[in-house]
Amino acid sequence: MMKLAAVCCLLVLTALTTASTTASTSQGTVAPGSSYDGSLLIGAFNIQVFGISKVGKVHVLQTLVKILKRYDLVLIQEIRDSSGTAIRTLLDTLNSEVQDKYEMALSSRLGRTSSKEQYAYFYKPSRLTLLWNYVYDDDSEDKFEREPFVAYFESPTTAMERFAMIGVHIKPSEAVAELDHLVHVYDDYVNKSAGNTNAIIAGDFNADCRYVSKTALKNSLLRSDMRFRWIIPDDADTTVAASDCSYDRIVLAGDDLFDSYQQNRTGAFYFDREYHLDINMAAEVSDHYPVEMFIKGNLDLEYSPDAIQPMLTAYSDSISRSGSFRAVVWMCLLVMGPLMFP
Ligand SMILES: [Ca+2]
Ligand SMILES: [Ca+2]
């Protein structure tokens, strides 16, 4: 009981001293990932022409690291760097600033012309085990400019045992055709995983404004097939510029994912507002905002010494979100009440 009381006091102190660390999304607020209960914050970020020039600018690199460390798993798109060093610099810089280190899965360089792009997944092995990954093979049909990059994860801290992330940066001028073909990419993954239907299809789909009309979107296979749920709405704004386009999307498939994700913690992450960057500073980082989603964890909370710090983080996040200390007061009353009024 003394331990619980100590935790309680620490929670109150934390509540009183913690500055808000939450971030606005299109539909609410999202706290950084890795909370105590095993939940996952998953993102997809098109870091416009990511390469040596970008990591060479200290303020850009710092902002990228700040954004990426929100996530337990994040897809990075538009890596354009024949030297292959920029993404490694980004990963190393990120890992120098966190205790819970990230690992990377990197695709081959993709594209029909000499202008190639790579995808990367940064993920925390403390939360997820990467089982296998592959670039979708479209050699026989050549449907994609940049073939989707599929990574299959084991997730011991959520209700999903295993799921895939299917990342894609769709070519704007062929957006409708590539969108349609994502259904085949998904079916191919289900086969490869011996029938696992859980998948997060995410990336810059270019599925709005001048590239995909509302009618074309409505008629696209990925939209009309009821196995898929589009969780970033058509009216979301995922562009840093004044334009209002919902280019970056997350589409879910599989009952476990439908049950585990939280819609009110899903949306674009407006890093310019959150970090108080003016439009020029933000534009140096990317022309896109990341999109993100939250998956509930299923770990039981234990009152072990090791559990206290993550608990403090998690509760201070929840306090920041609610903007009140009521949660802490209620918890203290529940814990201390029986002691004080036996
Ligand atoms: Ca191709
Ligand atoms: Ca915009």
Q: Could you walk me through the main structural features you see in this protein, from its secondary elements to its overall organization?
A:
- This protein is an alpha+beta fold and 342 residues long.
- It has 2 domains: 50 residues, no CATH class; 258 residues, Endonuclease/exonuclease/phosphatase (Deoxyribonuclease I, Chain A, 4-Layer Sandwich), CATH 3.60.10.10.
- Helices cover 35% and strands 24% of the residues.
- It has 12 helices and 14 strands.
- The chain has a 6-stranded mixed sheet. Strands 7-8-9-10-12-11 form a 6-stranded mixed sheet.
- A hairpin with a 7-residue loop joins strand 8 and strand 9.
- Helix 1 packs parallel to helix 11 and helix 3 packs across helix 4.
- About 8% of the residues have low confidence.
- One calcium ion binds next to loops.
- GO terms for molecular function: deoxyribonuclease I activity; DNA binding.
- One of its GO terms (cellular component) is nucleus.
- Keywords: Hydrolase, Nuclease, Signal.
- This is Endonuclease/exonuclease/phosphatase domain-containing protein.
- Belongs to the DNase I family.
